[in-house]
Amino acid sequence: MTINPQLPLSFSRTHRLQWEEAQQKFVILYPEGMVELNQSSAEILKCCDGVRTLADVVSALEEKFATTGLHHDINAFLEVALTNGWIQQ
């Protein structure tokens, strides 16, 4: 699946993003199981608030981490997240 850059990204209503204290990381919980996330993936998903577009997510994270050139990596991850049903547009 491909991200439409004009549409806002939102986290799936059938999944839950939460911090797991025991594992010291964010996870995605869903009826069939759990996905452990690295810090970068969790930061991207936290930006999927139903308001921000791909460009907004990239800008927010580049500003937060004082860097540039994240578009390709963020887009690639979000395409995986969209395919897996973690996010929707």
Automatic annotation (TrEMBL):
Pathway(s) this gene product operates in, as recorded in its UniProt entry: Cofactor biosynthesis; pyrroloquinoline quinone biosynthesis
GO molecular function: quinone binding
Gene Ontology BP term (one): pyrroloquinoline quinone biosynthetic process
Keyword Cytoplasm attributed: no
Coiled-coil portions: none
Keywords tagged on the record: PQQ biosynthesis
Keyword check for Disulfide bond: no
InterPro entries per UniProt: PQQD (IPR008792), PqqD_bac (IPR022479), PqqD_sf (IPR041881)
UniProt xrefs under NCBIfam families: PQQ_PqqD, PRK02079.1
Oligomer and partners: Monomer. Interacts with PqqE.
Record's protein name: Pyrroloquinoline quinone biosynthesis peptide chaperone PqqD
Organism this protein belongs to: Methylovulum psychrotolerans
